[in-house]
Amino acid sequence: MIGRFVSRLFGKRPPAEIPDAPWQETLARLPFLGWLSADERRRLRDLVARFLDEKEFTTAGGLALDDRMRLSIAVQGCLPILNLGLDWYAGWVGIVVYPAEFVIPRSVVDDDGVVHEYDEVASGEAWGGGPLLISWEDVEMAGEGYNVVIHEFAHKLDMLNGEADGMPPLPPGMSRRAWEETLLDAYDDFCDRVDAAEAAGNETEIDPYAAESPGEFFAVIAECFFESPSLLRGQYPALYAQMASFFRLDPLAPER
């Protein structure tokens, strides 16, 4: 059954419905999706089928990729665009899955013009106009606020208008000025919190990696928005409201 599902899903025919058994198994492994309504789950399922039909999965490091892994990545990756639409992921097709963290060669030029080359260990990487790289080991850590899939797909949204700087294109009706002011005010406050926590030998509840840059802040906050919405709204209610407007989705809506 699954083999036929994959051949149809990745072939030239219109995307087939995702079989119920693997769909339910995936939802069970991702309990943070429990706040979705029945209608939202149905629409997410349709969106995931179309996503799988359009994107191409490859592996590196000897990883054997199967349907369960593709489906898990697709479900988490499509959650942020549930009410935005698949066009927000247009312009790229490749998803490269590594078995665990991987090494990315980097080079930077200092103020004196000297080039410094080094290797960076990463769990995910989103390239503007190119593929998305991700560690399967980290994919399986989804839950309790850490979600490498949502993080990297948030970068993809951010890159739609250039660099990943925390300033993605906004849906109609949103104020660019309000978004920038809210996000940057929260970012500055969060950096102060991280500094204070480190000085006290503690760690912030929200991943301190968010203090790296406004772009990383947006991606980490997206993780928190979908996985730990009460935490985000409790610490940054104005930013939570902006994220709900951006994604056109509110995990803490009263009707839930």
UniProtKB/TrEMBL annotation:
This is Zinc-dependent peptidase. SUPFAM superfamilies: Metalloproteases ('zincins'), catalytic domain. The lineage of its organism: Bacteria, Pseudomonadati, Pseudomonadota, Betaproteobacteria, Rhodocyclales. It comes from Azospira restricta. It comes from the Bacteria. It holds the Pfam family Peptidase_M90. InterPro entries: MetalloPept_cat_dom_sf, MtfA_fam, MtfA_N. PANTHER family: MTFA PEPTIDASE (PTHR30164), PROTEIN MTFA (PTHR30164:SF2). GO terms for molecular function: aminopeptidase activity; metallopeptidase activity. One of its GO terms (cellular component) is cytosol.
